[in-house]
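Dear support,

Our group has been running a series of protein-ligand predictions, and this particular one with coproporphyrinogen III is the one our PI (initials K.S.) wants archived with full inputs and outputs. We had some confusion internally about which version of the output was final, so please treat the block below as the authoritative record. The input we submitted was:
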Amino acid sequence: MPKNDLLIRSLLRQPVERTPVWMMRQAGRYLPEYRKVREQAGDFLSLCMNPELACEVTMQPLDRYRFDAAILFSDILTIPHAMGLGLHFVEGEGPKFHHPVRHSEDIKALPVPDPEDDLGYVCDAVRLIHKTLDGRVPLIGFSGSPWTLACYMVEGGSSRDFRKVKGLLYEQPQLMHELLEKLTNAVSAYLNAQISAGVEVVMVFDTWGGVLSAEDYQHFSLNYTARIAEKVPQEIPSVLFTKGGGQWLEAMADSGFDGLGLDWTTSITSARHRVGDKVALQGNMDPLTLYASPVVIEQRVERVLRQFGHGSGHVFNLGHGILPDIDPAHVEAMVEAVHKISPQFHRE
Ligand code: CP3
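Confirmed final output from the archive:
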């Protein structure tokens, strides 16, 4: 158990002295020291594949700020890359695949990667980070949800309207289920390998769950992420983040995760009423708040803490990842505000 176990206790809704804080994309381009190491690695993917450098950038935000968690430096698209899709990043356009999957033959031919063989660089990075952290704070491992991975794999990259992946879903639902089934097995094996290598919390990113209709969200996303939660060992807290998923909180709270990530469009007050004692909540300050002045940031941190209210079960975070041109001093203002203001919400 890490010395600072605030994150773990909060996710299990046990009492804490103050609200833990970490930030999605906390290791990234807004930090000059990250940009330096990325340059040294050559590109983002080479950085992910080099355990020493991945460990170095994982630690960078912890050396600067009083965060209560480390998150493995990697990407959700390592699984499709290991399945042979050929991941690469085009400057200004984001991720792309050389071999998107569109047809029955493509999907049937996809292998389910063996994490230690095909994603050994991730397992090695986890082992090294775990050792380097030496119990300072918990290490979060992660994966994309099957649906979100399928979006990138079928579209061949980012998409504005998801026409190809939705085309597959509507025209050939059985084939879509076949792809999601394979991805569910791959994600489960991958998260469990990360756990064996030393991660203490796992998070599933369903970044594109929110683009589905309510019924399709249940059938094509939540049913699969729930199976992943089921295979996570009981003692490892798990979090599901569905961007744009605020309207489905009750269903998500029943899906077997210990915590739910909230984007900034959902009121954390009403979210807490709706999920009751079933799950903890993580979020949900608008990442764009960090463009405001430190004084405004502190007021907004106070507002999120007050909106959650008194008691345990809250992990302070942004509602989505930090943007690359944020001033690092503004992150400091956010973290320090949580340290300063949150203890009053945990006194008897
Ligand atoms: O949170 C962390 O600090 C851990 C590392 C992490 C990264 N990606 C590093 C990264 C995590 C947890 C992710 C998850 C991820 N990756 C998601 C789900 C979370 C979310 O943002 O919704 C998604 C959808 C991806 C896919 C992905 N990777 C995209 C769309 C991009 C391009 C983004 C951009 O702004 O160009 C990436 C690249 C990426 N992943 C970067 C980082 C730090 C930027 C890489 C760089 O240029 O240095």
